[in-house]
Amino acid sequence: MRKILVFSLVSFLVFCNVKPIWAQSGDSEDITPCKECEDLLKLDLPDVLITETSIRGKNTKWCRVSGIIGDEINFNLLLPLSWNQIFVMGGGGGFVGSVHNQQAGKVLQGYATVGTDTGHES
User: Fold this and answer.
1) What angle do CA 24, 25, 31 make, to 5 degrees?
2) Tens digits of residue pLDDT in 11-30
3) Dist. CA 100–CA 95, nearest whole Å
4) Would you report the helix, strand and coil content of the chain in percent, each value rounded to 5?
5) What's this model's pTM, rounded to 2 decimal places?
6) What is the Cα–Cα distance from 58 to 63, expressed in whole angstroms?
7) C-alpha span between 1 and 6 (Å, rounded)
8) CA-to-CA distance for 50 and 120, rounded, in angstroms?
């Protein structure tokens, strides 16, 4: 549960102009970030160390954020530069051994998504 809260917090810090879905009328618009990808290295979050950020993609661009939660949970958070306001957690099972995100391809459709190693390294 702690992992999902951290990723949600980072997503909302990055996309500060998000409106609740129930407050919108008509079709939802894509949300653009209010923080630059490289500025995420400066975020001071309790029990989270962001180790790397980079812009990825050719036609559809996203920010890849890597870090560690606590002492052992490694993660990769993918934040599309044009976000559809939907967050998808992509897991890999209990003992994956490396950071794994089964939903990584969703970033091309505007979804924010994340994968972790659940604290298990092979």
Assistant:
1) 45
2) 555 656 555 544 444 455 55
3) 10
4) 25, 30, 50
5) 0.75
6) 12
7) 9
8) 18
